[in-house]
Amino acid sequence: MKLKIFTSIFFSALISNSVVAADQLGSRNNPLKIAIVPSGHATKALDSAKPVAKCIEDKSKIFINIQVPNSYIAVVEAIGAQKVDLAFGDIVSFLIAKNKFGAEPLLQVIRYGTTTYQSAIFVKSTSSINEIKDLEGKKFAFSDASSASSYIYPKILMKKNNKKFAQEVPTGSMDASIIALMQGQVDAAAAYYNPPPISAKEKDGKSEKINDARNKVINIYPNIAKETKVLWLSKPIPNEPVYARKGLSEDLKAKLVPAIAECIKSYPNSINNMQELIPLKKNSTDYDEFVKEVETSGLDIANIFSKK
């Protein structure tokens, strides 16, 4: 697969107390390459990442080149070709990169105080869709074919229930999927879900606050919590990892892991709504159940990615 063009920016900083060989990975002439798979607009993602990248350079004393790919799967091919050393990706791109190229998870994302999230299928509150069986023959919006929450888990659900959507509408982003639902272009939309905060007040059985994809468009639809309902929730899915290509040196990983964790904490929500990162133990099994779920689902993952 050809790599799509990367938007990139180079951050430089003086390295003190050490002399780095000109061609050594992490030097000025050979910076460590980090890819960010954005959940929104690539240019905005790059601008938002600037202070984080500078912080990582300052703390790790490693020169960095930040890249924002135009697709989820492009980062996987870049990891395999060693054109990317570290990735802020999604969980499915990690799964493919791990199985195909031996990628290693280094840190796990924490959002809303938890290391997991769920896939949700949203419908309008006034919809006649009240059960999974009612999705048969309906129009369905998803953000990206490589998204666990907006595509893969709903596809597994429909397969298990022997149901099919009449039309699958790729929107390119989860907020676009929610907008398509609100505008009546589709009957259902899938996206990520985290429970509302415990402190949230309840009105008519609806929380005033939401911690899921609907929050992305709450400025457009301030009453979206009341105007939509959650039809279905998946089992917990582990939050995506920050992962490294196979063969990245232990010395670089040892410097990068604490630096990245500190910088995300200093600049929360600057990269893909990441609020905190925790280091993963080597050979972590945190993603084993997710891998098993996908691999035993009967879905043709290769065919899913051919949609891209």
Report on the structure:
The model is unreliable at 1-20 (pLDDT under 50). The radius of gyration is 20 Å and the shape is globular. By secondary structure, it is of the alpha/beta class. A seven-stranded mixed sheet has the order 1-3-2-4-14-5-15, sandwiched between helices. Strands 6, 7, 8, 9, 12 and 13 form a six-stranded mixed sheet that branches. It has two domains: 7-112 and 240-305, Periplasmic binding protein-like II (D-Maltodextrin-Binding Protein, domain 2); 116-237, 3-Layer(aba) Sandwich (D-Maltodextrin-Binding Protein, domain 2). Helix 4 links the parallel strand 7 (139-142) and strand 8. The chain has nine helices and 15 strands. It has helices at residues 42-60, 74-80, 91-101, 148-160, 174-182, 224-227, 250-266, 288-295, 301-305, and strands at residues 7-11, 32-36, 64-68, 86-88, 104-110, 116-124, 139-142, 167-170, 188-193, 202-203, 206-207, 228-233, 237-238, 241-244, 276-279.
Secondary structure elements and pairings:
Elements: E1 7-11, E2 32-36, H1 42-60, E3 64-68, H2 74-80, E4 86-88, H3 91-101, E5 104-110, E6 116-124, E7 139-142, H4 148-160, E8 167-170, H5 174-182, E9 188-193, E10 202-203, E11 206-207, H6 224-227, E12 228-233, E13 237-238, E14 241-244, H7 250-266, E15 276-279, H8 288-295, H9 301-305
Parallel strand pairs: 2-3, 2-4, 7-8, 7-9
Antiparallel strand pairs: 1-3, 4-14, 5-14, 5-15, 6-9, 6-12, 6-13, 10-11
